[in-house]
TrEMBL record, chains A, B:
Record domain Response regulatory: where: 2-123
GO molecular function: DNA binding
Signal peptide: none
Matching Gene3D superfamilies: 3.40.50.2300, Winged helix-like DNA-binding domain superfamily/Winged helix DNA-binding domain
Entry keywords, A to Z: DNA-binding, Phosphoprotein
Species whose genome carries this gene: Szabonella alba
Name of the featured protein: Response regulator transcription factor
Length: 242, 242
DNA sequence: ATCCGGCCTGCGGAAACCCGCAAATGCCCT
DNA sequence: AGGGCATTTGCGGGTTTCCGCAGGCCGGAT
């Protein structure tokens, strides 16, 4: 059994390697990659079936790397080990995990025992393990947003990237009015009105983005990925339009 | 000499303590705080003159903590030790550092030697030390934005929080037209138009925020702090209006 | 069958945003 | 003093956003 660690922080990497050595004595080789790209390369080369992956890394982040790895070898088991429990990360992962695979999500603040357990459950037994704190994001005393629809989330991301109503409509295949309806429900769920004491009227669109960021419904990492997709869509549109 | 470490990541804290012990043999006591609040308390209690501070911490971040510490004891020397080199952090720090004090800014990716040197230069010699990579943020292949004015930056933050033109004008003491002029120059500097291929017209306001985030001119941490100030300003306005 | 709730769509208008034009102010430099 | 140069402000109008009203489609519960 070969295990790949993808982690760009040297201290975390050292700790992780140590724990993996203890938790998985059947691992005859432990490879370390220091960002998403390296991780993809190593996974491809080493025919690796078990991965522990950090999410936040400079350059290529963990979700992007996981996507390409799973596309090439869907049975790969991946344990995500991250500092954050943002809704955006969860959404990103649950969207791309293949049916035949196992994955886990453990916070870096978890105890050594918890990490140990998760390593065995996911990488050896092939189970699905998600830290409870992650799933209901209790930490940072942030009350979870009333859950968003897929459509609402898609519109939120597009708006956060700076698309106009017309562009969102075009991209999502809706009418402009529908986009605006999604926006209305977003304004509601994100509590955009809350600060409106009297004559103070905010720019709801920007306020919604700010609230979504504050509540960690979206995060800059996810936006970066979405921006890439947007750019690709844009060139496709330009070609079609010409 | 007493040294206070403020760092919420246990692995980083362990490494930091070790390095400080080696670099500063004159330190007869090394105290560890695990977030900004604890840091303030310890600094107050221990009559501490030298601090190494992480910037990103859950709860109260390093900049907020540094501000209150410097307000109470302006001669305190603080070395910031951070993962990031965002413009927003730099701006936040240079805005609050007192004249009579020394500070430094070192990236966590710096070598042990660099950290060692910075520890001695800042905490013992009282010099100002800033990692070169930080000051011109070359990393992440992000080309720095043509530097923003203070006024532009203030408007950008307000807009990112979701304020309308009128509110920004009121808060910054400008006319609405001036706010819009600042916005125009922001749209220019942040290259908001770049994606406008043909009929694709973006929402410039939201796009500007997205660009600023992507270029790391602002970051969610700084926005969180700014949101707090905004809330305080709002209640003040409400009282005055009534 | 009927009703209910959710999502989609068009219409129309108030408000906000975006911005060119032009005049006023202030600062620096010669 | 006078000539740039940047910043501020008002005016006016084109565009976009925001949203109530009203109607259509659809799946599920009564």
């Amino acid at each position: 059994m070969k295990v790949l660690l993808v982690e760009d922080d040297q201290f975390h990497a050292a700790y992780l390697r140590e724990t993996v050595q203890k938790a998985l004595p059947e691992a005859e080789e432990i490879v370390l990659a220091r960002d998403g790209h390296q991780g993809e390369t190593e996974a491809r080369r080493g025919a690796i079936g078990a991965i522990v992956m950090d999410l936040q890394m400079r350059g290529r982040n963990g979700i992007e790397a996981a996507r390409t790895i799973w596309r090439e070898r869907p049975a790969t088991r991946i344990l995500f080990w991250s500092n954050y429990s943002d809704e955006a990360y969860l959404r990103g992962i649950s969207r791309i995990v293949p049916k035949e695979s196992a994955y886990g999500y453990v916070l870096k603040t978890a105890s050594n025992d918890r990490l140990h357990l998760a390593l065995r459950s996911v990488l050896v037994e092939g189970q699905i393990v998600v830290d409870r704190e992650v799933h209901q994001f209790q930490q940072r005393q942030i009350r979870p947003v009333e859950v968003l629809t897929e459509a609402e989330y898609a519109v939120l991301v597009d708006v956060s990237l700076g698309l106009s109503d017309r562009m969102v409509a075009q991209r999502q295949g809706m009418s402009m009015r529908t986009v605006q309806n999604r926006l209305l429900s977003l304004y509601d769920k994100l509590e955009v009105e809350r600060a409106a004491d009297g004559d103070m009227q905010m720019n709801k669109r920007s306020r919604a983005v700010a609230r979504a960021l504050a509540l960690r419904v979206i995060n800059p990492e996810a936006l970066e990925t979405a921006e890439g997709e947007l750019q690709r869509w844009l060139v496709r549109q330009a070609r079609q339009g010409a």
